[in-house]
Amino acid sequence: MKILITYLSQTGNTEKVAGAIYEEASKAHEIETKKLEEVNPENVSGYDFLFIGSPIHAGNLSGAVKDFLSRLQVPSGRKLAGFLTHAGSAYPEQIMSKFTEPYKAACDKNALEYLGCFSCQGFLNPAIHEMVKKGQNLTDEQWEERVKQMTGHPDAEDLNKARVFAKEVLAKL
Ligand SMILES: Cc1cc2nc3c(=O)[nH]c(=O)nc-3n(C[C@H](O)[C@H](O)[C@H](O)COP(=O)(O)O)c2cc1C
Predict the structure, then answer these.
(1) What is the percent of the chain where pLDDT is above 70?
(2) Which architecture does CATH list for 2-125+153-170?
(3) From the CB of 153, is ligand 1 less than 6 Å away?
(4) pTM of the prediction?
(5) For residue 173, how far is its CA from the centre of ligand 1 (angstroms)?
(6) Cα–ligand 1 centroid distance for 157 (angstroms)
(7) Domain boundaries along the sequence of the chain
(8) Distance of CA 161 from the midpoint of ligand 1 (Å)
């Protein structure tokens, strides 16, 4: 099976998850890994399976990934799964389903099978720590706790879970 792993990643977190998915998927399949900006969403007919990754920006998928998904043209019957990283520790189901909505819409539009979305925490770019701390009105103590919680993510356990996710969805091929 031919698989495309494509992702947007500004600080490397989503790219690490892409790498873990690649490790698992490449055991039994032919894989291409590409940055989102290298892929034309209207010309991805050569793959049986697409993994598409995004960071969460301002409470949603990154705009570039949303745009990519809305323009996606894939022959019907192919399969798609998502992967996300976010600085928040864990999001409730209701918010996760908002994040995954653009993936599902792309699948509905192209008659693809949607096989789910992996998500894990990713350390926030230090350049915007002060802005987020102020924006959320957090005390120094609360912010320290937040930083402690996200430090090191995605970690070995997150990446292992990403490999397990890849294994499970690829078993459905
Ligand atoms: C401009 C910007 C906005 C962000 N907004 C959110 C957000 O709303 N919720 C959240 O959990 N994380 C947010 N993050 C954190 C990123 O989703 C997280 O650090 C992610 O792992 C970055 O992935 P990357 O290293 O692949 O770019 C934001 C990061 C940036 C740079």
Answers:
(1) 100
(2) 3-Layer(aba) Sandwich (3.40)
(3) no
(4) 0.98
(5) 31
(6) 19
(7) 2-125+153-170
(8) 20
Q: Is the CB–ligand 1 distance for residue 26 below 6 Å? A: no
- Residue range 119-143: mean pLDDT, rounded: 97
Binding site membership of 58 for ligand 1 (Cβ less than 6 Å)? yes
Query: Per-residue pLDDT tens for 41-55?
Result: 999 999 999 999 999
Residue with the smallest CA separation from ligand 1 atom 4 is 57
Buried b (16+ CB within 10 A) or exposed e, 74-105: beeebbbbbbbbbbeeebeeeeeeebbebbbe
| 146 C-beta closer than 6 A to ligand 1 | no
